[in-house]
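Anyone up for a design puzzle?
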């Protein structure tokens, strides 16, 4: 099971193991990670699961589709590595991925 390092806006790190095929959002919600709300349940319709993929890991994550790209226009403090964590699904190659949370989802 891949390991995810969730980094809070304040710099605290929480480690979570999750099944391959699980979204990063679901792994966060299932493990009580503050900063990932996932209010729409992973439907790519609310942007409350906004996160930043660590630059070292961007190449191992699929590109966002047009729906996700449009939703990313709604997030606070977007960055080049911004993603909706409900649209990033774990693979074995993502073992050790670092995901940072923004200061706020609103």
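Challenge accepted. My sequence:
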């Amino acid at each position: 099971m891949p390991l995810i390092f969730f980094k809070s806006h304040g710099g605290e790190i929480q480690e979570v193991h999750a099944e391959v095929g699980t979204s990063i959002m679901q792994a966060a919600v299932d493990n009580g990670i503050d900063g990932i709300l996932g209010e729409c349940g992973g439907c790519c319709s609310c942007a409350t699961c906004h996160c930043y993929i660590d630059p070292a890991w961007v190449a191992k994550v699929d590109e966002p589709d047009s729906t996700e790209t449009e939703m990313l226009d709604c997030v606070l403090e977007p960055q080049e590595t911004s993603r909706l964590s409900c649209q990033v699904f774990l693979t074995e190659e993502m073992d050790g991925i670092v995901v940072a949370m923004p200061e706020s989802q609103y």
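A detail worth pointing out: The longest helix spans residues 24-30.
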